[in-house]
Design brief:
By secondary structure, the chain is of the alpha+beta class. Helix content is about 30%, strand content about 20%. It has eight helices and 13 strands. It has helices at about 10-20, 55-65, 85-95, 110-120, 145-155, 210-225, 255-260, 265-280; strands spanning about 1-5, 30, 50, 100-105, 125, 135-140, 160-165, 170-175, 180-190, 195, 205, 230-235, 240-245. Strands 8, 9, 10, 11, 12 and 13 form a six-stranded antiparallel sheet that branches. Strand 9 and strand 10 (about 195) form a beta hairpin. Helix 1 (about 10-20) crosses helix 8 (about 265-280). The longest helix is centred in the C-terminal third of the chain and has 16 residues, at about 265-280. It is globular.
């Protein structure tokens, strides 16, 4: 089990290493920024590969290590050489429910007014790509704030996404491994912020995932052709569900440490089973 690291929280590789040890699998940490790209380092059929790091350096190492027959969480036959470039469009094509979303590359006021009408009026949510933990996500409560924001985005060469604001919704993170939702937790808001965050309250976590949440989360991961993900879902009081994003890789230790569900073990077992299917050595 090769694990490509580049500054991920220490509990991530630790839990994966413990899961490998319990199952008799050799755990091999790979430091992305110290990697030498020697051809002999490439993995072979039957090996397992996961990259919890999200840096460009880590992605290059993952792509170098991968060869046909190596089991990863990428569902596409091209493994880590393939990635969905437009996740919202992929969700729409797969029938996964999402808030209405429009890429915004204009500062034209008339067109912006039309966008706002299509999104159900203000407030709207704007998202600048590339951030994490809510960084780059804004709630715009007026046309004036929208106009000011898009002027800045255009001046800095950015194309934000504008989305409908789903009021009174609960934000859930659902952890998917393979075709199963193995754990979920509810994110909370602070008094003066519309963005949500995970808590350490045990009551917010569940090892038994609501079936409707599980179905939409698994469908979201499948739409992005990945076999594990942390899927963010808004649950409206009406019962409607909206997928915001499916994060791959995702930070799973928080859910494991609170719920006690062996998520790392489920991940390792998924790759072991996959290796038996995709590796010529097992055919």
């Amino acid at each position: 089990f090769a694990c490509v690291d580049d500054g991920v929280p220490e509990e991530t590789p630790r839990l994966l290493a413990e899961a490998c040890e319990k199952r008799g699998i050799a755990f091999v940490p790979v430091e992305a920024r110290a990697f030498d790209f020697a051809p002999a380092r490439r993995l072979g059929p039957g090996d397992l590969l996961y990259t919890p790091a999200v840096s460009t350096a880590a992605r290059y190492v993952e792509q170098f290590l991968w060869t046909e027959g190596v089991a990863t969480f990428h569902a596409d036959p091209s493994g880590p050489l393939f990635a969905i470039a437009a996740p919202i469009a992929a969700f729409e094509q797969a029938g996964v429910p999402t808030p209405r979303t429009i890429p915004c590359a204009t500062t034209d006021r008339a067109l912006l007014r039309r966008f706002v009408e299509e999104l159900g009026g203000v407030p709207v949510v704007a998202k600048l790509l590339g951030g994490s933990g809510g960084v780059g996500v804004l709630r715009l409560d007026s046309l004036a704030s929208l106009f000011s924001f898009v002027d800045h985005a255009a001046a800095t060469g950015q194309v934000p996404l504008l989305s409908a604001f789903v009021d009174r919704a609960e934000h859930h993170r659902v952890v998917v491994v393979g075709e199963r939702a193995v754990a979920a937790y509810r994110n909370r808001t602070d008094d003066d912020d519309f963005r949500t965050h995970a808590t350490s309250q045990p009551g917010d976590y569940s090892a038994e995932v609501d079936p409707a949440l599980a179905r939409v989360a698994v469908a979201a991961a499948r739409a992005l052709r990945v076999e594990t993900a942390g899927v963010d879902v808004l649950a409206h009081p009406s019962g409607r569900l909206y997928v915001l994003e499916a994060n791959f890789p995702c930070y799973f230790p928080q859910a494991q440490l609170v719920t006690g569900v062996d998520i790392a073990g489920a991940m390792v077992e998924h790759l072991i089973e996959k290796a038996e299917r995709v590796s010529p050595a097992h055919r």
